[in-house]
Amino acid sequence: MGFLRSAATTTTAAAAALAALTFTSLSPPSSSLPSLSLPKSLKFQSFSINKPFDHLGHSKNLTKPPSALHMDAPLSDYKPSSPQNGVLLPDLLTEFMVDMKCDGCVNAVKNKLNTLTGVKNVEVDLSNQVVRVLGSSPVKTMSEALEQTGRKARLIGQGVPEDFLVSAAVSEFKGPNIYGVVRLAQVNMELARVEANFSGLPTGKHGWSINEYGDLTRGAASTGRVFNPTTEEKPLGDLGTLEADEDGKAFFSGTKDNLRVSDLIGRSIAVYATEDKSDLGLSAAVIARSAGVGENYKKLCTCDGTTIWEASDADFVTSKV
């Protein structure tokens, strides 16, 4: 899609018309789609997002866009880089809000992130205190690296800066026994990246899955069957196995073919006591839309007005996993 926008400025009028016609035929009706809100000034070497309206006619409403960050953006034909859990992960753009005050802070953050396996490029916007990382390194690894520099850091967006209507989602397990965060990010229309961190699990192997419903009235038992919009024998929503260590912690980072994040909003992720999911389930959490790249540059929490990195660790589920 980004290619069609850039090609229109360099081809003949007839070619541009043909590209526009092709794009229109592939796009879903705008009446059924939610509006997007992307910053106007984000520019990439491969393409730029600088128009006041997107291809669906939705206006952009960011009042104070961040200054432009320049880097090569991953395209839909992704190139896997470093292996995690035996799986080659696709590259994504990940954005953090980091408490930085000077060029020394910028250098410290860049130097630390560039030591991580899978990190290809790091760009920092000091004026907006935004750090953008291109690569395959898991969010948990990058978050820990940033905090090792002595600076507070919070994830604010992840995905590929293309025209996905929903590029990222999150499911938060908030206790009282099991805590965890599951993040899903759309890489292209045929692939999603899945990352999860859990604590409080019984030691051993646990089945986990995306289930049909977000009904948590009876915990995992009321979330329905494993999500499966296909006719395949193995449900699409089957996420395999989590293995908790002696401390009850489990970490997962991998990919899922044919999974579309936009189809998952309002459903749930459930974790089971057994690997075969034969029990009623240990815990479940609803899947909610999360900010994609360039969609969340607020510095104040809307719930209490607290500056993001001045909130206590107890305010963030990730502090418990």
TrEMBL record:
GO terms for cellular component: chloroplast; membrane. Its cofactor is Cu(2+). Pfam families: HMA, Sod_Cu. The keyword Metal-binding applies. One of its GO terms (biological process) is superoxide metabolic process. Residues 58-82 are annotated as: Disordered. It is found in: Membrane; Plastid, Chloroplast. The keyword Nucleotide-binding does not apply. It is a peripheral membrane protein. This is Superoxide dismutase copper chaperone. It comes from Heracleum sosnowskyi.
